[in-house]
Design a protein that fits this description.
The protein is an alpha/beta fold. It folds into two domains: 194 residues, 2-enoyl-CoA Hydratase, Chain A, domain 1 (Alpha-Beta Complex); 47 residues, Lyase 2-enoyl-coa Hydratase, Chain  A, domain 2 (Orthogonal Bundle), CATH 1.10.12. 47% of the residues lie in helices and 16% in strands. It contains eleven helices and ten strands. Helix 4 crosses helix 5 and helix 5 crosses helix 6. The chain starts with 6 loop residues before the first strand and ends in a 9-residue tail after the last helix. 39% of the residues are buried. Bound molecules: octanoyl-coenzyme A. The site of octanoyl-coenzyme A has 25 residues, from helix 2, helix 3 and strand 6.
């Protein structure tokens, strides 16, 4: 297992890999070394992992944004590169075959909110706070936030959040569909583990193909998306998991997946 300075990475026996951004003194702000470690941790994810959880260290924050101290003296070219690297890593996260869950216990601001948006879905504590405050410090959401927030909560609300920079609380984020569930702070990890376990018990190939079809479908026109889904459905029938899943149902027993 790779040792990191700014991350903690643990894989459970059931195949849930938890990547914790761990710089609590600066509310887990993302600087370049942290982003590069995140890239390496995502690269290291293999078939042993069935679900990826992204979390923040400490009690206060998921991630309070890109590291403002590190960005303050950027030249335009350095800013472009930082934005590009962030985009590449969040894109890589979004395209993992395994489902990804953001476990949000506190501030998810700026780049932290953008990290949430690069995950398949989020489960939050009642104390979580979401926002894109970049314009309050003279920049804009540069890790995909101008694009992904609109796709999650609709263009008008995304623009209000982006133009005002005013953060929203967990219940409002839930109402908008930015998070799937809001739970008490001390119940958060257990609830995320429960949802991850519900995914892990299903056919790995089917889950991966369902994720890919949903992602392609969200980006394609309806006819192409429908064709892709039909192909993905057919692909399931090349997998031993389909044979086992249907056989187990008919034999009234639990399936054993090969993946
Ligand atoms: N970057 C660097 N340090 C941070 C950050 C951050 N984003 N957020 C908090 N910290 C540090 C504080 O400076 C402070 O350090 P110190 O103890 O040395 O003074 C420590 O974390 C604790 O923070 P606070 O004392 O401020 O804690 P509070 O509870 O008073 O406030 C807040 C919490 C409201 C979350 C507050 O810290 C805050 O507003 N943070 C900044 C939020 C923000 O503006 N985020 C967006 C940053 S920009 C961004 O994310 C752009 C992404 C795209 C980049 C594109 C590339 C060019």
């Amino acid at each position: 297992m790779t040792a990191y300075e700014n991350l903690r990475v643990q894989t459970s026996e059931t195949g849930v890999t938890r990547i914790t951004i761990d710089r609590p003194k600066v509310l887990n702000a993302l600087n370049a070394p942290t982003l590069l470690e995140l890239r390496s941790a995502i690269d290291d994810i293999d078939g042993q992992t069935r679900v990826v959880v992204i979390a923040g260290g400490g009690e206060k924050a998921f991630v309070a944004g890109a590291d403002i101290a590190a960005m303050a003296d950027f030249t335009p070219l350095e800013a472009r590169k930082f934005s590009r690297v962030g985009h590449e890593i969040f894109h890589q996260l979004e395209r993992l075959p395994q489902p990804t869950i953001a476990e949000v216990q506190g501030y998810a601001l700026g780049g932290g909110c953008e990290l949430v948006l690069a995950c398949d879905f989020a489960i939050a504590s009642e104390k979580a706070v979401f926002g894109l405050p970049e314009v309050t410090i003279g920049v804009l959401p540069g890790f995909g936030g101008t694009i992904r927030l609109a796709r999650r909560v609709g263009p008008a609300m995304a623009r209000q959040m982006m133009f005002t920079g005013v953060p929203i609380k967990a219940d409002e984020a839930h109402r908008l569909g930015l998070v799937n569930e809001v739970v008490a702070p001390d119940a958060l990890t257990a609830r995320v583990d429960e949802v991850a376990a519900a995914i892990v018990k299903n056919a790995p190939t089917a889950v991966a193909l369902a994720k890919q079809s949903a992602r392609v479908g969200a980006e394609a026109d309806l006819a192409s998306a429908a064709t892709y889904e039909q192909d993905a459905f057919a692909l399931c029938f090349t997998s031993p998991d389909q044979k086992e899943g249907m056989k187990a149902f008919l034999e009234k027993r639990k399936p054993t997946w090969q993946g």
